[in-house]
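Q: Structure tokens for this one, please.
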Amino acid sequence: MEPRPILWIVIPCYNEEQVLPLTAPLFLHKLQQLAAVGKISENSRVLFVNDGSKDKTWEIICDLAKEDGHFIGICQSRNRGHQNAVLAGLMEAKNRCDITISIDCDGQDDINAMDEMVDKYLEGYEIVYGVRSKRETDTWFKRTTAEGFYKLMNAMGAEVVYNHADYRLISSRVLDQFADFEEVNIFLRGMVPLVGFPSATVTYERSARLAGESHYPLRKMIALAFNGITSLSVKPINLITGFGVLFSLFGIMLMIWAIVGAILGNTVAGWASTICIICLLGGIQLISLGIIGQYIGKTYLETKRRPRYIISERTWEKSERRWIEAGQAGDAGTNTTLKE
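A: Here is the predicted structure, written as tokens:
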């Protein structure tokens, strides 16, 4: 009989003091439920990744770790963003477990989908994507912009799974290969498919957030989409080149028309048309320079090779320190007794 796989549930947390006490028991119950039916090992864990929270999130994680050994946590030295927090958790887990499931802390993703994810892994799939079946809980604006986000990403050449966020199962085998992806500007939704390996999807319905406020407003969604496109595709540069060629041809045609008009004596002063052409071309040039600048900026950051995350604390290190300090206190007491 093959040993049951060890699962680590990786949960990024940023200012989640309101929702964490509500969702942590749910994650633990699911872990115990999966272990009880023999799908995973009892040595499985729930790993919280504190992404430089400004509230009491880290204190809550430490308290949870004291109450139950299935809860563990790591703390980043500062806020580095959702994608880096997920990456930190995955890299922390890859040598300590067989499979990981990353999921947000807010309780919106259906944790019962983990059962089918683990089943898919046991069938031989190395990556299992959690995909939303519908978006009835979203407003029209949220639904339209979110679906447009995935369509835009694919249109721009970034390979992403439609309606999939960061709820996914990844095996340690895949993570070993994923560790070789060393770029600083990361977009996990587009990077994970690049690794390959057999993959499957599991559909689920997303519910409303249990407590607190969303940390992904429209502004961050737009920034995430732009970062994903420029990190995974050079298609915007190709589009700029295409526009450049198109407008160059248009300019040559206008130049020929102007020369012919001057020879025939049909030139008429046209202030409005001149201003319109100048504004149009000027705007396109500025947009093009901005997009090119984004690529240059990313190249600049990549050459620096700065760390993508820095872990400042681990809950199990705190336990070890308490154990060492208790031992040292005992030694000190013994020494005092001997001296007396």
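A few notes: The first helix runs from residue 20 to 36. Confidence is low (pLDDT under 50) at residues 331-340.
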